[in-house]
Design a protein that fits this description.
- This protein is an all-alpha fold and 92 residues long.
- It has three helices and no strands.
- The mean pLDDT is 88.
């Protein structure tokens, strides 16, 4: 009986520690999942930005945009694309 009481206390203490540390153990997986989601979002934004650049070039070639407007828009879109690429590189 003298051995059983400390054994029960140790088991209960182990269960409490295991339950309390659960969020800490899952934190690494959650952070990794968040990084993957962020990377996927940035990849999608990059592809959308590339599409915008191609659309602007098509608008220029078909005469919907003047050369001056196209150059300004192209410069802005390419700057935004470079920012997305920089942010993707930081994640890797």
């Amino acid at each position: 009986m003298d051995v059983l009481a400390p054994l029960i206390v140790i088991v209960l203490l182990g269960v409490v520690v295991w339950l309390v540390s659960g969020p800490l153990r899952a934190g690494g997986a959650a952070a990794e999942e968040a990084e993957v989601t962020r990377r996927d979002d940035l990849e999608a934004a990059k592809e959308a930005k590339y599409r915008e650049i191609r659309d602007a070039e098509l608008d220029y070639r078909t005469g919907k945009l003047s050369e001056e407007d196209w150059r300004a828009l192209d410069r802005e879109l390419r700057g935004e694309a470079m920012d997305l690429l920089r942010r993707l590189d930081e994640l890797r």
